[in-house]
Amino acid sequence: MAEVANQNPLLGETTCGSLLQQLQKIWDDVGENDDERDQMLLEIEQECLDVYKRKVDQAAKSRAELLRTLADAQVELTGLLSALGDKTFAEIPDRDSGTIKEQLSSIAPTLEKLWKQKDERITEFFKVQSQIQKIRGEITGTNGHLGDPSVDESDLSIKKLDDFQSQLQELQKEKSDRLQKVLEFVSLVHDLCAVLGMDFFSTVTEVHPSLNDSTGMQSKSISNDTLSMLAKTVLALKEEKQQRLHKLQEFAIQLVDLWNLMDTSDEERHFFDHITCNISASVEEVTIPGALALDLIEQAEVEVERLDLLKASKMREIAFKKQGELEEIYARVHVEIDPEAAREKIISLIESGNFEPSELLADMDNQIGKAKEEAVSRKDILDKVEKWMSACEEESWLEDYNRDDNRYNAGRGAHLNLKRAEKARLLVNKIPALVDILIAKTRAWEEDSGLQFTYDGVPLLAMLDEYALLRQDREEEKRKLRDQKKFHEQINTETESVFGAKPSPARPLGSKKVVGPRTNGTPRRLSLNVHQNGSRSINKDAKRDNIRPAAPVNYVAISKDDSAVSHVSGTTEALLASP
Description:
This protein is mostly helical. Among the domains are: 33-116; 188-313, no CATH class; 374-496 and 513-577. The chain is 69% helix and 1% strand. The protein has a two-stranded parallel ribbon with strand order 1-4. The longest helix has 51 residues, at 34-84.
């Protein structure tokens, strides 16, 4: 020990050797024997061994702790690398190089860096998972009942983070789609409420308070319940719109019908243009705000009720107006009806009170419709009847013109009458063909309709047959006149040859006739009798015996013009009586 103490002068002045020398000197002064000195030296040596042993144990324990710390650090390093998903970390120290403290010193920065990276990764995971949880809560409607998300620190890899990022992107897209759908529903609700005259804010906030326009875009609810409620609200509003439009259109149709019945002025109708403008519109076409408001429908309903009451009080006037329209249609097509009986029937029906005004008017409209159809079917025949009558007028005028001995005198208007006579001869020559066409068309019309074609109550075929007979009689009379004229000319020639020429007596001034058109045409002056002359023409076609008359028959008897025959007969008698 003295050698060790002496070999370590750096330990200072007090060393084991110096202390042992001091102890030897003390023992010498005291006079300790060698046994006691050896015993004390053994004790000192034992105590020194105990101190070394304790120090060695402490050193071993410290080394074990360092080894444990190194092992924990290595395990922690492995765990961090596994959690972060980076098994090829470039800065991992070599476990077999250097002392334990050197290994600990080399692994500590890596651990610190990995811990920092782990904290950053946890923050990223927490942020992403929080957003995912928030969006899912918004979708399910449980956003306010969810706590903070828990981050699984055992797997903080980039791959796991990318998975969460992908989920977040999908949820963000779904949120955007849902928000767009919510906005579309809200816009539909707004438009429908505007058309229906309803409060948009109260309607939409009943679905969810966040749907108010004052809230931000991202604050609006996009939950399943909100979307479902919005869809139901839109459907209910559309059904309400459909029902209101149908109701308004019914009132509008009634208004138009009542206006037409009562000849309401355009100024009065103008006050209800906002009601009648949608009379034939579809649901999609009605977009004007307030177009289907309840007060508007009530206004239309009140007006319909008012006009219904007014219609009941003016029913007689309206019915007589329609009866007048019916009579006018029949008058234009020369069909005879009994207007007095019809009006009396209308009055009795209205006064009885046992009728529905709409049914009465509908029945009269039906009669008017049938009358118009009949008028259309009679038009072609009536046009030809007018031509025939016009031709007969010209024929009557031509007869008077031919009987005028002064027709060729160069008087005032003689050239006009001459031109008219030329045209009249051409027109008269067409009468037989026109009559044949009229007869054929009339028979075809009667076969098709099952009715008798009458003209102002007279069967047209009977008129045509009678005209044919009268025309035949006139031709026969003309032939007799020509024969008589030839006979008289022959007698005059013989008389002149025996007694010489004799001046003819002067014609009385009163016998001169004025040439001009007649006011009544020949067919209108026909003398018809349903049991005599008319029956001859009708019996020519046995099929017409069963045809019912279209109107009450009321033949008008007008005498023929026999002035020409009587005038010629008187002249003949005078000639025969002369010597």
